[in-house]
Specification:
8 helices, 353 residues, alpha/beta
Length: 353
Amino acid sequence: MNFGGNGNATIRCKYCSACLTVIPGERAIQCAQCNCVTRIRRADRIPVPRPAHVPAAFQRARGKKRAVLIGITYAGMRRGCGELRGPINDVKCMRNLLCQRFGFPSECIIMLTDDQRDPFRLPTKENIRMAMHWLVQGCSYGDSLVFHFSGLGAQVADDDGDEADGYDEAICPLDAFQRGPILDDEINEAIVRPLVHGVRLHAVVDACYSATVLDLHYLCHMSRNGFWQWEDESPPSGAWKGTSGGHAVLISGYSEGKSNMAMMPDAYASVGAMTHSFIRALECEPRGVTYGRLLTSMRAIMKNRGGGYDLQGPIGAPIHTVANFSGVQVRDDSEPNLSSSEMFDIYRKPFVL
């Protein structure tokens, strides 16, 4: 790392050798020339100054049920690619679901979308970080927390030995091309480890490379014999990525393209229909549906390319006012996945927010 006369630090892009300015607090940086992501070594990271005050957008009511919902279309931001069509609708649908089916107070939900005029409601890296901090700050027994992200995902070469496949997963904020993605290490540290006994976190992430984006220890997926089964995804390095006594669950989309795309340093791909299948399944299944039945319903909806289920009832009507599910695009290899900070019987445990 080199330090310039103005105090800024620079490093070379790992892929094209372009000179990159290191931003305080960042663990990775994306090259403006080749769009590839370069990790910043722990020893080279610059401490980030804490903000002097918390913006009003993050001084929301703190009920026992609260949520952070993020949707990014990247309009005008993706070089050589069009914007994503669904993320903002995903956020609106999730808000309706949480408020009308699960009783979340609207004032306890923070929405970050890139169609906002308020700069503190844009899904920038700093705003997402503040929203994650707001979500878990002061959490206590009985709290139900929801984190939802719909946008682009990425993989970045792992540098600390805590990934079996050698790659960290990440979500891409609005300013990812300037400040880099948010790595799973940081997401785990921000919203998983602070969870104390009696606190539940459900994360719904609709992005490629998101199957383990919370770095939870256990992954549940469909086996070849047609049953959901757990796999131990604990870090090979032995690093602890668990909670402080609470329970974290991630429901995410997954495609077999993950392993084939892993060698692409700038492996970005468009979102699928995971959010839509999640909402459809909850609307069509009775209250108290088990996790196993929910995953099976989501999988059937995905395999049917988003069709076959009509959204009716109290949730379906408002959702139809903000989204058109007939245009959902689903990859042939799309699968829902569930990961958790602890294993449990998914065929008996009811899904409760």
